[in-house]
Amino acid sequence: MHFRTSKLLSATALVAVVALAACSSSSKSTSTGTGTGNNGSAAHTASVASLTVGSPSGTNGFDPYNCGYGPEQNILLAGYDTLIRAAPDGTFAPSLALTWKYTSPTVFTMTLRTGVTFADGSPMNAAAVVANLTRASKTFAQITAPLALGMQSVTAVNPTEVTITLRTPNPDLTTILSTCAGMIVSPALLATPTKMATTMDGTGPYDYDAGASIAGSSYTFHKKPTYWDSAKFPFKTVVFKVITDFNTAFNAIRSGQLDIAVGTPAEIPSATASGLASVQGNINFYAVDLRDREGTIVPALKDVRVRQALNYAIDRDAVIKTFFEDLGRPTDQLLNPHAGGYDSGVDNTYPYNVQKAKELLTAAGYPNGFTLPVLSTQGFQLDQILQAISGYWSKIGVKVQDEVEPVSSWETQLITNKYPAIIFPFSGLPGYTALDQSFGSASPLNPFHTANTALDADLATAASAPSQANRDTAIQSAQKTLLDQAWYAGVGYDDVIWFTNPKKVTGLQMQLNQSVPHFYNWQPGS
Amino acid sequence: MIKYAAQRIALSLVLLWVVVTFTFLLLQFVPGDPAAVILGGQGTPAQLAQVRGQLGLDRPVIAQYGTWLGNVLHADLGRSVISGQSVSSILNQRAPVTISLALAATLVSIVVGVGMGILAAVRGGWVDRTVRFGAGLGAAVPNFWLGALLVLVFSVWLGILPSVGYTSLFRAPVSWARYMVLPIAAVAAASVAGVARQTRTSMSMALQSDYVQTLRGAGLSRRSIVYKHALRNASIPIATIVGWLFVGLLGGAVLVEQVFALPGLGQATVQAISTNDIPVLQGLVIYATVIVLIVNLLIDLTNAWLNPKVRHP
Tens digit of pLDDT for each residue in A182-201? Predict the structure, then answer.
């Protein structure tokens, strides 16, 4: 081929690339980083037309009861309001419910906001709330479990007042109703359940644009012309892009394709250099739940000395540093510092001591260790953390049989008694819920239904305590029991990081017990 | 030619039937309750009963197969157990992304690869060595690694091309091109190498053949000899591998779609595997088979048109 022809082709290719680049509407972030830490809120100097959020996962359809505590919450919050809003500092703000209170440990009443309607013009009222909560009481899912197990009845006292009667006291209803379990769906859509997976009809600030979306990949929302809290949602269009790979998401936010993305500790220096801001929080407590405490499958687990040995054998500092660098928090206490009942004195109940672990195993009659099947999954770094723990346990002769399941089946296997142990990210829920949901004798996450008299008594006291101080004392005692009896082998808290482009958005704050900064705190950047 | 085409179409339909049947049998051979498998081990007894009813699992296997085949012929591939969306609509949404990526990458592979191969065969010397080295490098570099490198250079450092995103080709062609330049480059690199090598070999052989010597002796121009005569004969083996190229690029799209967060069939496959969304996986198998069969059919027909020996053995 003549040289001038090849030259022509090269020139053509170069012109094409330059032309494409010239059409670029995105701009690279400049290096005016604000560093790490909470970036607070900024003045509303400009309204931003659109916001693009990187989400590490999509939704399991649009039914709120298929939602968990992860990123899918924000996608659903675009279209559905919860009854109560959780503020980042752990307090609660009115949403569809204006006021609420416990009139007794088992009776919870709410007064609803008026003037709010669904897409067909029907009012959001007590009847709609009752219809939703009744469905919750009959739907056994992770997010609705407390209502399905604990709610005896829900009634509409009048068009704006709802009363929930519980079978047993639960002091954390406010938290529960601020999650997907408290989202209110239009009764018309409730009547056609087959459509709930693919259709949204709520009172939330945005309308879902199905034509511009691809389920599992991108979700586009346009702001409704009228909304009862419009100022909280200044972005006209919000697009959630599902990007499961952290590296891809990080490159996308650095190149301006995303305005918000989840990150990792290792990326902080590059993010800062790129002018990105970040918010962080210690949210999830990683532990191996030693649930076969009666020794049904693994007889060794029946002996408390064996369970204590498993705790002594883990170098928590090393594990947390490996996965979360200096930003994680090694501890064997499940309660986080913001939870009522937290006691810093028990943060290191089982300091790393291999010799002591071996002595305990020998005293219990297992000098050569034993095999322990553990349910795990690749998601949330769980399997990687289990591999690290396995390495420590192998030094005392305990061989982990890693039973890895895809996330969806891992979630369903959690409530079966097929596995003597599971590795689990206990989210930093309020004290009572955090302990009762996982270790209460009737809890589905305690499928072997092992009970401890002192623990059950403390949880019952916490549930019906007349004051927060009394509740905290009972929860503290319950946590100590769990540690003394070594019902789990804890490693510590992770560090959840979200990066933002401060020129586009500000106001992100980590929620106390959620891995996702909630939607309703975001404002345009400066 | 018509008879040949009819034979190829009939064979393709038989192959499709085999794949559809195998996909049906896949669920039958899975141990345990297929409804439980489809619901991922979750579901109330009522939901399990509903799925069994929908699938007709209480009927004889032959009757179930007949229903399954009938549904497939009506493009009814069931519903996702995760999103509830119909499998057909999921795949119809995502297929254009992957097909446009694979087709564009194939086109780039052919144009650039053939060009490089011709250059190497005609010029020889250092040009030939350079092209062969480049081809080796392109074949050795993993496409997902190359994709990540391209993102770093063009999106993050230079900021001239986007790292994620997609627009339909028919809605906004220029925008489509902007989003797809890097993924196409990443996917096509190895294929360019393969086409370049094949073209170089074929062209070299053609240029050394007796008929080309005769044409030179007859005084035809170099351009005429290379493009009008030698290339036509050299393109037969190239046309043969294009079909394989496309299939390979379709598979390579899985990793590249993850790197660039493209909402294509590859991304859907990864999500369906990680969530045990069996109806979607079944649909993906059938969908991918149909795409590959259509492309291979077109390649075979092109091959037959280029080379009469193929249609008259």
Answer: 999 999 999 988 788 889 99
Q: How many CB pairs under 8 A join A and B?
A: 144
- Provide mean pLDDT across the span B31-46: 60
**How confident is the model over A11-31, as pLDDT tens digits?**
444 444 444 444 433 333 222
Contact A1 B276 (CB under 8 A): no
Asked if A401 is an interface residue toward chain B (Cβ–Cβ < 8 A), one would say no
The residues, ordered by sequence, that sit 6+ positions from A223 with a Cβ below 8 Å of its Cβ are A205, A206, A207, A230, A233, A235, A236, A237, A238
Using the Cβ of B36 and the Cβ atoms of chain A, whether some distance falls under 8 Å is answered with no
What is the Cα A332 distance to its own chain's centre? 20
Residue B46's CB is within 10 A of a number of other CB atoms, namely 8
Return the pLDDT at A130. 97
Instruction: Using DSSP, state whether B30 is helix, strand or coil.
Output: coil
Quote the CA–CA distance of A512 and B262 in Å, as a whole number.
Answer: 33
Q: Under a CB-based contact definition with an 8 Å cutoff, are residues B215 and B172 in contact?
A: no
Kindly provide the ipTM of the predicted complex, given to two decimals.
Answer: 0.79
* Beta strands A371-377 and A421-427, pairing class: parallel
pTM of the model: 0.82
In which element (H, E) is residue A188 found?
Answer: helix A187-190
- Segment B56-84 mean pLDDT: 81
Q: Are strands A399-405 and A371-377 parallel, antiparallel or unpaired?
A: parallel
Q: Three-class SS of residue A112?
A: strand
What is the sign, positive or negative, of the torsion defined by CA atoms of A187, A188, A193, A199? Answer: negative
* Residue A352 pLDDT > 90: yes
Query: Mean pLDDT for chain A?
Result: 86
Best of A7, A14, A20 to disrupt the B interface by mutation (most B CBs within 10 Å)? Answer: A20
The dihedral region occupied by A397, where left means phi > 0, alpha psi between -120 and 50, and beta the remainder, is left
| Chain A residues near residue B96 by CB distance under 8 angstroms | none
Amino acid identity, position A422: I
